[in-house]
Amino acid sequence: MSSSSPTKRILSGVQPTGQLHLGNYLGAVRNWVAEQHHYESFFCVVDLHALTVPQEPAELRQATRRTAALYLASGIDPQVAVVFVQSHVPAHTELTWLFNCLVPTNWLERMIQFKEKATKLGSEVSVGLFDYPILQAADILLYQPHLVPVGEDQRQHLELTRDIARRFNDRFGETLRVPEADIRKEGARVMSLQDGTAKMSKSDPSDLSRINLLDSPDRLREKIKKAKSDPIMGLRFDPERPEATNLLTVYQLLSGLERDAVEKRFAEVGFGKFKPELAELLIEYLRPIRDRYDAIVGETGYLDGILRDGAERASAVASATLGLVREKLGLLPPF
């Protein structure tokens, strides 16, 4: 393996489509912040993945910067972790092509998420959408990570990544680390405000379905007020009451209280009393993130410098892995 550091390495990232929301934060980013001092951490804005569906160019550039700034505003320390934009490290696309020449097409044909997205896009489905699990594998394996934090919905993609690493190693000798999945349970599935059975999503057409990290206080109050509820007095965690369970879960995760304490607190009240309290908790919880975000984007050149430095640090690691792969495949080194 190319990495001999005794500190375990971790890599993760999100697409810059839409805005980061509370589900992204509680399910992923908050964990990154807590663990960045315990791992050699690489956090990427995966803008190339966003191109698998049509994007408006100016919005994509803006969203890429916004996502990177929110990483920092959420508490990622660029002096500790590497924060970079995927397309700024050309090794990602080169390794993708090399893997394309190694992976059988039937490995991709069985990917569940492709089937679901292809059904929605119809004739607009692209080769990139079909192939993006290979790009994802390249994203991961370039950095030789020990762990990859993923949600349940990404487990199949990580298994494909592990299969690719094993296939390469079997054919060409030990070269790529086979990473382990770090699957989080608590907070991993914050649900839609409009449908307690559906995951909170950036792609939902209704902005009322999600809590964006940059929502204003008034917008947060409006969203919580309009969140779907039920007429039953007394709130509790109950699979038969998905909306009540979802809002109580959000309260639990933000307040730090135990599940039993949250349920006891609201056992005798309805949504009319609970929702304003949840809204104010959300406002105060997100206020520091909004304030830091404003400071980051307001400082001319600061974010660009962080991303430039991150791309250089990421490229140093990625290029070393790519060089090993090229050598094993028999490609002539560049002069």
UniProtKB/TrEMBL annotation:
<dbReference type="InterPro" id="IPR024109">
    <property type="entry name" value="Trp-tRNA-ligase_bac-type"/>
</dbReference>
<comment type="similarity">
    <text>Belongs to the class-I aminoacyl-tRNA synthetase family.</text>
</comment>
<feature type="binding site">
    <location>
        <begin position="151"/>
        <end position="153"/>
    </location>
    <ligand>
        <name>ATP</name>
    </ligand>
</feature>
<feature type="binding site">
    <location>
        <begin position="23"/>
        <end position="24"/>
    </location>
    <ligand>
        <name>ATP</name>
    </ligand>
</feature>
<feature type="binding site">
    <location>
        <position position="139"/>
    </location>
    <ligand>
        <name>L-tryptophan</name>
    </ligand>
</feature>
<feature type="binding site">
    <location>
        <position position="190"/>
    </location>
    <ligand>
        <name>ATP</name>
    </ligand>
</feature>
<keyword id="KW-0547">Nucleotide-binding</keyword>
<dbReference type="GO" id="GO:0004830">
    <property type="term" value="F:tryptophan-tRNA ligase activity"/>
</dbReference>
<feature type="short sequence motif" description="'KMSKS' region">
    <location>
        <begin position="199"/>
        <end position="203"/>
    </location>
</feature>
<comment type="function">
    <text>Catalyzes the attachment of tryptophan to tRNA(Trp).</text>
</comment>
<dbReference type="InterPro" id="IPR001412">
    <property type="entry name" value="aa-tRNA-synth_I_CS"/>
</dbReference>
<dbReference type="GO" id="GO:0005524">
    <property type="term" value="F:ATP binding"/>
</dbReference>
<dbReference type="GO" id="GO:0006436">
    <property type="term" value="P:tryptophanyl-tRNA aminoacylation"/>
</dbReference>
<dbReference type="InterPro" id="IPR002305">
    <property type="entry name" value="aa-tRNA-synth_Ic"/>
</dbReference>
<keyword id="KW-0648">Protein biosynthesis</keyword>
<feature type="short sequence motif" description="'HIGH' region">
    <location>
        <begin position="16"/>
        <end position="24"/>
    </location>
</feature>
<dbReference type="Pfam" id="PF00579">
    <property type="entry name" value="tRNA-synt_1b"/>
</dbReference>
<dbReference type="InterPro" id="IPR002306">
    <property type="entry name" value="Trp-tRNA-ligase"/>
</dbReference>
<dbReference type="GO" id="GO:0005737">
    <property type="term" value="C:cytoplasm"/>
</dbReference>
<protein>
    <recommendedName>
        <fullName>Tryptophan--tRNA ligase</fullName>
        <ecNumber>6.1.1.2</ecNumber>
    </recommendedName>
</protein>
<keyword id="KW-0030">Aminoacyl-tRNA synthetase</keyword>
<feature type="binding site">
    <location>
        <begin position="15"/>
        <end position="17"/>
    </location>
    <ligand>
        <name>ATP</name>
    </ligand>
</feature>
<comment type="subunit">
    <text>Homodimer.</text>
</comment>
<dbReference type="InterPro" id="IPR050203">
    <property type="entry name" value="Trp-tRNA_synthetase"/>
</dbReference>
<dbReference type="InterPro" id="IPR014729">
    <property type="entry name" value="Rossmann-like_a/b/a_fold"/>
</dbReference>
<feature type="binding site">
    <location>
        <begin position="199"/>
        <end position="203"/>
    </location>
    <ligand>
        <name>ATP</name>
    </ligand>
</feature>
<keyword id="KW-0436">Ligase</keyword>
<keyword id="KW-0963">Cytoplasm</keyword>
<keyword id="KW-0067">ATP-binding</keyword>
